[in-house]
Amino acid sequence: MAVNYNYDAFIPENFMPQMRFDKSPALGKPGPDFPLWKIEDRSETSLHAVCASNALTVVEFGSLT
Fold first, then answer.
1. How many angstroms separate the CA atoms of 49 and 34, rounded?
2. Could you tell me if residue 30 is inside a domain?
3. Per-residue pLDDT tens for 12-65?
4. Is position 47 within any domain?
5. What is the DSSP letter of 9?
6. Which of 58, 62, 50 is nearest to 2 (CA)?
7. Is residue 61 domain-resident?
8. What's the pLDDT score for residue 63?
9. In a domain, 59, yes or no
């Protein structure tokens, strides 16, 4: 999938095939658990642990450029 991440033009034909919204959890339902690493000390945690310790959690995937 990473091979398809970089494309020559930001047009729907290049990125829409990767948008799998039909496979996403429903709004309000938990997402799949996966490992995460804390920025401050690089210790490992998980999405489940972060969600359990916070009232709201926002997860951003992709580039912020």
1. 10
2. yes
3. 888 888 888 888 888 888 888 999 988 899 999 999 999 899 998 888 776 655
4. yes
5. S
6. 62
7. no
8. 62
9. no
Query: Any idea what DSSP says for residue 57?
Result: -
- Phi-psi group of 7: left, alpha or beta (phi > 0 → left; psi -120 to 50 → alpha; rest → beta): beta
Place of tokens 């709004």: 27
Query: Which pLDDT does position 43 carry in this prediction?
Result: 95
Cβ(48)–Cβ(33) below 8 Å: yes
| Residue 20: partners with Cβ closer than 8 Å, 6 or more residues away | none
Q: Write out the two tokens for 30.
A: 């938990």
Give the total number of structural domains in the chain: 1
Domain, as residue range, for 16: 2-52
Contact 38, 47 (CB under 8 A): no
